[in-house]
Each structure stands twice: as C-alpha cells, then as structure tokens.
C-alpha cells in the first residue's frame, strides 16, 4: 500500500493535468451544442480533478510529516506549498460547483448557458488550473532543490547521472 507521501504525489500531479484537460473540453464544448457526451465528459473530468485536489489536500499533512523527517528537507518549502494549497482549495471546489451549474443549465436552457455560466466556468477552471500548477511546482521544490536553480547554471554545472556509449558501425566488426 502506498504511503501518504506517495498518494499525495499522485493526486498533486494528476489533478492539475485533469484541470487542463477539463478546460480544453470545456472550450471545445462551446462549439458542439448538442453533444451531451462531450458535455458530460467535461463535467466528469473537472469533478475528478476537483476530487483529486481534495484528496491531495487530505494527504498533504501526512505527507509533510513523513517528508519532514528526511534530512535536508526545507520546512519553509513544505510550509509554502501547504499555504498555497490551502489558498487554492476553495477555487477547486468553486470550479466543480460552477461546472455542475453550467452542465445543469445547459441541459435545461441551452441557449442562455452560452453566456455567463460557460464564461464563468472557463475563467474559474483556467484560474484554478494555473493556481494548481503553481502549487504543484512549489511542492516540487521540497524535494528537488535543483529546480530552483536557473537553467543556464544547472546546464553548466550538472552532468547526466549516466553516460551512454554511442555504438558505431565500426564497433560491430
């Protein structure tokens, strides 16, 4: 059975990805008014993303307890990630709730929904996707301090962990 840190990583990677996919589906859904399957898929993906973010939040404290015991782990990085996650949490719930409203109105009043409910859903899901991606990125700094270095510095000072020999045709003979 995976521990809390492992589960947290799964949820924290999957949920933002699903939000981005849900956003794309939401945008595509505006072009296909009578595609109930696409609309339902959009709703399901966004609800799954929100559920993933809820699960990430619920496993975060236990994951922090496990990871904080590892030497060299920054308590500040854990705290920053936790604070951002707590701030993002209501946006995830609001995205799910607003998408449910959009889907319900779409089924009952398809002509009126193309305005406020769709736009509000797109903007809120997009904002939540960006926010969730930032929270995940900050979480990556907990265990990956090299992510904080600039790319130019990292490329000049780091070499690949494994170097491979390139086989040529002459080496076969």
Describe this structure in words.
The chain is mostly helical. The protein has one domain. It is 76% helix and 0% strand. It has 6 helices and no strands. The protein has helices at residues 4-29, 36-67, 75-108, 110-113, 116-143, 151-157. Helix 2 runs antiparallel to helix 3 (75-108). The longest helix has 34 residues, at 75-108. The relative contact order is 0.14.
Notable features of this structure?
single chain; 173 residues; mainly alpha; 6 helices; 0% strand; disordered C terminus
Helix content: over 70%
Total number of β-strand segments? 0
Number of separate domains: 1
Distance between the termini: 50 Å
Mean pLDDT: 78
Structural class: mainly alpha
Q: Name the assembly state.
A: single chain
Question: Shape, please?
Answer: elongated
């Amino acid at each position: 059975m995976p521990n809390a840190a492992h589960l947290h990583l799964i949820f924290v990677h999957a949920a933002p990805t699903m939000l981005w996919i849900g956003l794309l589906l939401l945008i595509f859904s505006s072009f296909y008014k009578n595609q109930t399957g696409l609309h339902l898929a959009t709703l399901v993906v966004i609800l799954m993303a929100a559920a993933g973010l809820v699960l990430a939040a619920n496993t975060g404290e236990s994951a922090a307890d496990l990871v904080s015991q590892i030497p060299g782990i920054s308590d500040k990085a854990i705290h920053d990630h936790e604070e951002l996650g707590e701030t993002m949490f209501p946006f995830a719930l609001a995205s799910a709730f607003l998408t449910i409203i959009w889907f319900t109105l779409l089924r009952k009043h398809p002509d009126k929904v193309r305005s406020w409910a769709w736009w509000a859903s797109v903007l809120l899901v997009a904002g939540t996707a960006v926010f969730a991606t930032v929270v995940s990125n900050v979480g990556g700094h907990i265990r990956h301090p090299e992510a904080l270095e600039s790319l130019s510095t990292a490329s000049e000072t780091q070499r690949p962990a494994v170097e491979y020999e390139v086989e040529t045709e002459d080496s076969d003979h």
